[in-house]
Hints:
This protein is an alpha+beta fold. It contains five helices and nine strands, in the order αββααββββαβββα. The strands form two sheets. A six-stranded mixed β-sheet has the order 1-2-3-4-5-6. Mean pLDDT is 91; it is low at 1-15.
Amino acid sequence: MHRLIYVSVAAATLVAAAPAITAVNIERNSATLEFSYSWPAQAAAITPLDRRFRANMATALRSAQATARDEQKLTREQKRPFNRQYFAMAWTSTGQSKRLLSLQYDLGEFTGGAHPNSNNGVLLWDRALAREIAADSLFARSGGLAAATRANYCKALDAERLKRREGEKLDGMFSACPKFSEVAIAPVDTNQDGRFDMLDFTAAPYTAGPYVEGEYAIALPVTAALIAALKPQYRASFAAQRQ
């Protein structure tokens, strides 16, 4: 009896001593470049994802350092001031279920020129498949995401553009509804109950409007109809919002 108790306590001690997995934030700053790359603990806990982000970080760092060096050399040759460049990639979790982890990134960078640039992207990880999947692959039919959301997205985007433009309508590319391939679409768990109840559609500057209008972030609620269009194995990861 005493031996069993001893083993149990020892095992509990080992578990308690195991270090907790935390978010990763890597910074590499120099006179020419301010660099940061981060991802949340939920991603760091998944070995393939953690390795992927570390590899991507190393590649981005080398590229940003080379760009900064080249720009510094050019400014010296042209006898003009050099402005320190920066690269900031921040991944965050927008929610997770038992099967899915939804991640979104914001990228900000300055490589010289008139203004900084920004971009957005998403990554949806399927734990059962142990790989990244496309949002449309959640649906039973190809094109299911667009069928379930595109009309409402385009309507909401047009309303927001009209508001920002104070009623003025623009012609050309900034009046069209962007392709979903140009928009970062992330499932979101707003109340952190392990089920996604919202879809966020983020269009970076120049995608849905001119640079001065910034990014366009449109949120649509998950509906019962959308859940019905999902593959059966993914339905438990979503919850319909009350209409």
